[in-house]
């Protein structure tokens, strides 16, 4: 590859070995750096321009510094593929397990993997892991299950992958943290749960308390298409689960329009955010159960654990249209 073409691909970043192969001498390289025409980014890694590096140039510098076989991975690859909106403070790269980068590389976290030949994206111009492998890498290092949930649901919510593709990639991994949870989660995501908030509602509100099974992410066509987070169509009850994305500004105005139309059509709408579903799932279950009972549900609310008071609250207050539990 010609030097100009190489620099175009690598966003102006060059290794010492690449510069020497292109005909530069050691003295010439030293002069270019000393005169300020080039910048030293890492050891034997240069930016052939002045001024700040773009994010892509920073990633290329880390990949070039790490050397043969290196790819962007983890949160860095996630940001490059649109899986997250913040690249974080470090550049993450992964190397084959039989290689080693000596010394500390400022601003770079180096990982090692035996499976890199399979997880490397085959066509990305900026070398990085395949999206499904990136998701699973992030799940594997997640310190808390909620963070693991966030990566899996983000990949599906942003239409970057599917539960089926993620399950296929998961099946090829011998070891990974949170495996049982992720396997169960992928089934739930395939059924329509698209965020940690929706997963929490499905598991800790609906299933844990024996409520009817709602239809998730139901598409309703009319003058304009609307999406219902959880629809209990038989009981004409809709539950909307509001995370931050899509429910501010114009999104909040659309929510109000949707709720008003639902009321006109005879539907009740309950709306919950993170604070309710994560902090008080039992309280949410009680509210839903009361509305469902008033609309014909005759099931029994069950306790989700030793400290759950949902059945007791229902018994104390009574339920319209349903027998006492």
What is the share of helical residues? 40-55%
Report the principal-axis shape.
elongated
Rg, nearest Å = 26 Å
Major beta-sheet overview? 4 strands, mixed
Number of helices: 15
Any idea of the CATH topology of the domain at 196-317? Answer: Endonuclease, Chain A
Architecture of the domain at 196-317 in CATH? Answer: 3-Layer(aba) Sandwich
CATH class of the domain at 196-317: Alpha Beta
| Mean pLDDT score | 88
Structural class designation: alpha+beta
Strand residue percentage:
5-15%
Query: How are the strands of the largest sheet arranged?
Result: 7-8-9-10
Number of strands: 10
Question: Can you tell me the residue ranges where pLDDT is under 50 for at least 5 consecutive residues?
Answer: 244-253, 320-325
How does the SSE layout of this entry go?
Blueprint (H helix, E strand, L loop, with lengths): L2 H7 L3 E3 H6 L4 H9 L4 E4 L2 E3 L7 H12 L4 E2 L1 H7 L10 E6 L11 E6 L2 H4 L11 H11 L3 H13 L5 H9 L7 H12 L5 H12 L7 E6 L5 E7 L4 E5 L8 H15 L3 E5 L1 H6 L1 H14 L15 H8 L8
Parallel strand pairs: 5-6, 9-10
Antiparallel strand pairs: 1-3, 2-3, 4-5, 7-8, 8-9
């Amino acid at each position: 590859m010609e030097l100009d073409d190489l620099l175009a691909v690598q966003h102006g970043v060059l290794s010492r070995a690449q510069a020497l192969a292109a005909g530069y001498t050691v003295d010439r390289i030293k002069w270019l750096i000393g005169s300020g025409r080039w910048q030293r980014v890492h050891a034997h890694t240069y930016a052939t321009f002045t001024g700040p590096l773009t994010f892509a140039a920073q990633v290329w510098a880390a990949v070039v510094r790490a050397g043969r076989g290196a790819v962007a991975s983890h949160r860095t690859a996630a940001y490059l593929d649109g899986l997250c909106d913040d690249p974080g403070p470090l550049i993450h790269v992964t190397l084959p397990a039989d290689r080693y980068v000596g010394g500390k590389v400022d601003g770079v976290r180096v990982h090692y993997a035996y499976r890199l030949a399979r997880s490397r994206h085959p066509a990305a111009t900026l070398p990085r892991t395949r999206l499904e492998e990136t998701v699973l890498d992030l799940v594997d290092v997640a310190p808390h299950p909620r963070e693991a949930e966030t990566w899996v649901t983000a990949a599906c919510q942003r239409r970057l992958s599917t539960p089926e593709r993620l399950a296929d990639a998961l099946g090829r991994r011998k070891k990974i943290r949170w495996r049982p949870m992720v396997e169960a989660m992928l089934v739930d995501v395939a059924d329509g749960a698209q965020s940690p908030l929706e997963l929490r509602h499905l598991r800790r509100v609906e299933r844990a308390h024996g409520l009817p099974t709602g239809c998730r992410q139901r598409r309703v066509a009319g003058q304009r298409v609307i999406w219902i987070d959880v629809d209990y169509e038989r009981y004409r009850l809709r539950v909307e689960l509001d995370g931050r994305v899509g429910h501010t500004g114009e999104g909040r105005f659309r929510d109000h329009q949707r709720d008003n139309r639902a009321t006109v059509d005879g539907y009740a709408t309950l709306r919950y955010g993170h604070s309710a579903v994560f902090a008080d799932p039992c309280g949410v279950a009680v509210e839903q159960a009361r509305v469902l009972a008033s609309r014909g549900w005759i099931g029994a609310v069950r306790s989700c654990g030793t400290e759950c008071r949902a059945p007791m609250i229902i018994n104390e207050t009574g339920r319209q249209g349903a027998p006492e539990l």
